[in-house]
TrEMBL record:
It comes from the Bacteria. Residues 45-99 are annotated as: Disordered. Residues 60-71 have a biased composition (Basic and acidic residues). Residues 90-99 have a biased composition (Polar residues). This is Uncharacterized protein.
Length: 99
């Protein structure tokens, strides 16, 4: 019996069978990848809610403020100017008010 020839035959048979298995596996993988992507796309479209158009924010109209006279307003010390300080010390109205 020629062992080298028998080993070559076994190796060739194994190589051919493994190529067949590899080809079948790659074909099945490509098919499931293609079809799987289509299945996931259809599921995503089915379960993903449709985008709603953005609603414009409507600001409420500001309520009209009642008119107030100068006697009803408060002047805080942070609102005072140098002219106000001079007037409180008795220097009178500044010239810029007359223009």
């Amino acid at each position: 019996m020629d062992y080298a020839a028998e080993m070559d035959r076994i190796l060739a048979e194994y190589t051919a069978a493994s190529r067949t298995v590899t080809d079948r596996f790659l074909a099945a993988d490509a098919r499931t990848t293609r079809e799987g992507a289509a299945v996931f796309d259809s599921l995503r479209q089915r379960f993903e809610p449709e985008p709603e158009p953005p609603v414009q924010a409507v600001r409420p109209d500001p309520e009209p403020q009642p008119r107030r006279s100068g006697r009803e307003t408060y002047v805080l010390p942070s609102d005072w100017t140098e002219e106000d300080e001079a007037r409180s010390q008795g220097y009178g109205s500044p010239n810029s008010w007359l223009v």
